[in-house]
Amino acid sequence: MKFLTHLLSLRWITGRRFVIGVPFVFLVCTFLIPFLIVARISLSDVDPDHPLGTLLTYTDGMINLHAKIANYLFIATDDLYGLTYLSSIKFAAITTVCCLLIGYPFAYFMARAKPTLRPVLLMMVMLPFWTSFLLRIYAWKGILANQGIVNHLLLSLGWISEPLHMMNTPFSLLIGMVYAYLPFMILPLFANLSKMDLRFLEAAADLGATPMQAFWRITVPLSKSGIIAGSMLVFIPAVGEYVIPELLGGPETLMIGHVLWDEFFSNNDWPMASSVTVVVILLILVPMAILNKYQAEQREGGRK
Amino acid sequence: MTSTLQRWFGRGWLSLGYIFLYLPIVVLVVFSFNESRQDMVWAGFSTKWYGELMNDTEIISGFGLSLRIAVLTACSSVLLGTFAAFVLNRYRRFPGRTLFSGMASAPLVMPEVIIGLSLLLMLVSVQKMFGFPERGFTTIWIGHTLLGMAYAAVVIQSRLQEMDKSLEEAAMDLGCKPRQVFFLVTLPNITQALASAWLLTFTLSLDDVVLSAFLSGPGSSTMPIVIFSRARLGLDPRVNAVAALTILVVSIGVIASSIYLARAERRRLKEIAAAFKGE
Q1: Span B161-189, mean pLDDT?
Q2: Which of B110, B114, B172, B212 is the mutation pick for testing A, counting most A CBs within 10 A?
Q3: Whole-model pTM?
Q4: Interface of B with A in 118-147 (CB under 8 A)
Q5: Is B162 in the same domain as B228?
Q6: Does one domain contain both B65 and B189?
Q7: Taking CB atoms and an 8 Å cutoff, what residues of chain B touch A22?
Q8: Are both B176 and B224 inside the same structural domain?
Q9: Residue B211 lies in a domain
Q10: Interface contact B199, partner A, CB < 8 A
């Protein structure tokens, strides 16, 4: 009784509890609980009236567990799902490598530019963020299409006699993915490289290292956390990307986001869509843990 | 590598990178003034697609809905994001901190199809139990706020980290209560971050396709949903016109706000300098 009146008087809400509680409750309700529900639905029958069903029932002193694992067995045995997961990971990995190969030199030259120029260069990387991602991806359709800008240019220059087929191929998909995710690679790398103590390089030069040696043996190892953070920031969302393959991909670029969407919207098979989701989450769990670890390290590092 | 060669290589690489980043934007704007319908061939200057856009009720009503959701989303995201950033930055130890920081940053990288699907399944269950919320405006708003809060928290947190903590300590020593410290000292110091977080979450919401598609109900198509369904079918010059208009508005907004913020920052620094001189 005393506990209840204490609870109702709301006096237990201190400022600190309130500040922590508001975002915590919101995140639990909109992020954590939904995942638990998805995990639950992935184990149930198709039953639109009782989406939550009953996982545990109690009859005659027996606790019965009803878990339908058929969906998971199907994902594990069916070739289509296996291939789709593999190709999603493949395209995400290629995207990450391309972003790193383009983004690392880019971030490096940005970080070594004149200090007065750096904020401008940084602003110019961030500016495209402010214009619609959807429209920028759509623009690539016009650039890469058979009657698109690139083909017109090459035809009129006489370099090719027939339009190149670029749209709806793995090539156009990768262009779109690298384009969309490149800034996510550049920004953490730039943050890392611009903080580097350049005296290490002077020391290396004094000790007789060539600039190339100094770069590979000092700059690159020192920027390891930036490389890892950037790669994870690109890889994780790229695995589940839906919009880019839908607009720029083709028959050869099956990705898991598309399968998930189809199971849900076209087949109306919620349990199957949920199982597909759970498997995607399991796939990205390790990369997310790595990312979290490095971000926490950088936060602590910034504190010292 | 000699240093001049390296410098030119650097310049070339940066230029190519920026061309890559800006090419689609330039193409969108240029071809919104193209006379021809399907081809990406220049067939003469024309503003007819802008005229057609004005009569396109689907896009106009979608834009209205998107705008209302975006304004609400930006406000709620900045509010919740400030809370979250404050917790992450100032409260080092409390039960569930690891869970909290994980949940606060996960929406940044989590594929949107996953967030959309799980939110939708949760909201459907809630609706089955309590009879609300109806799929549409409210559900999209909730989804966008989840995403926006994560982005706002990042922006605000980095400002909180840079902030000079001795100001807050001084206020505390002079007898301010924690709440007063927050409103009188912390908040004025992070207004810039709050403004950029607001703008960022606003554009994020105005642009989102996947979450909106999962969370929208019948008759509540936001502008990105309309654009996405057309873009899937092929090229539509009216979409280019929308793009050009948004780019115009965004660049004016970004330039104006960065000029304003730069001025405010200069004024702040001048005041600080004056305060130190005057003593």
Answers
A1: 85
A2: B114
A3: 0.86
A4: 118-119, 121-122, 124-125, 128, 142-143, 145-146
A5: yes
A6: yes
A7: 80, 83
A8: yes
A9: yes
A10: yes
Assess whether B95 and B200 both reside in one domain: yes
Residue A270: phi and psi, rounded to 5, are -65, -45
Q: Would you state the pLDDT for residue A95? A: 97
How many Cβ pairs within 8 Å bridge chains A and B? Answer: 234
Note the pLDDT tens digit of each residue in B31-69. 888 777 665 667 777 777 888 788 888 888 889 999 999
For B189-231, the pLDDT digits (tens) are 888 889 889 988 998 898 899 999 999 877 788 999 998 988 8
Mean confidence (pLDDT) of chain B: 86
ipTM of the complex: 0.84
In a domain, B85, yes or no: yes
Task: Give the amino acid at B194.
Answer: L
pLDDT of residue A53: 54
Supply the range of the domain harboring residue B272.
237-279
CA distance B53 to B48: 9
* Domain A77-303 listed as CATH 3.40.50.2000: no
Q: Are residues B229 and B242 in the same domain?
A: no
Q: Please write down the HEC assignment for all residues of A182-241.
A: HHHHHHHHHHHHHCCCCHHHHHHHHCCCCHHHHHHHHHHHHCHHHHHHHHHHHHHHHHCC
Q: CB–CB of A240 and B111 under 8 A?
A: yes
Model confidence pLDDT, tens digit, residues A161-182 = 888 888 888 999 999 999 999 9
Nearest by CB to residue B40, choosing from A142, A237, A260, is A142
Q: How far is B276 from chain A (nearest CA, A)?
A: 26
Would the CB atoms of B207 and A261 count as touching at under 8 Å? no
Alpha-carbon gap: A75 to the closest alpha carbon of chain B (Å): 17
Same domain? B253 vs B188: no
In three-state secondary structure terms, A275 is helix
CATH number of the domain to which B212 belongs: 1.10.3720.10
Domain ranges for chain A, please list them: 2-65, 77-303
- Per residue, the 3-state secondary structure of chain B, as one string, reads CCHHHHHHHHHHHHHHHHHHHHHHHHHHHHHCCECCCCCCCCCCECCHHHHHHHCCHHHHHHHHHHHHHHHHHHHHHHHHHHHHHHHHHHCCCCCCHHHHHHHHHHHHHCCHHHHHHHHHHHHHHHHHHHCCCCCCHHHHHHHHHHHHHHHHHHHHHHHHHHCCHHHHHHHHHCCCCHHHHHHHHHHHHHHHHHHHHHHHHHHHHHHCCHHHHHHCCCCCCCHHHHHHHHHHHCCCHHHHHHHHHHHHHHHHHHHHHHHHHHHHHHHHHHHHHHHHHHC
pLDDT tens profile A231-261: 999 999 999 999 999 999 888 888 999 889 9
HSE-CB for B261 with a 13 A CA cutoff: 15
Least confident of A54-58, A192-196, B127-131: A54-58
Residue B73: per-residue pLDDT: 96
Give the DSSP per-residue string, A29-73: IIIIHHHHHHHHHTTS---TT-SS--SEEEETTEEEE----HHHH
pLDDT score for A97: 97
Chain B environment of A28 (Cβ under 8 Å): 103
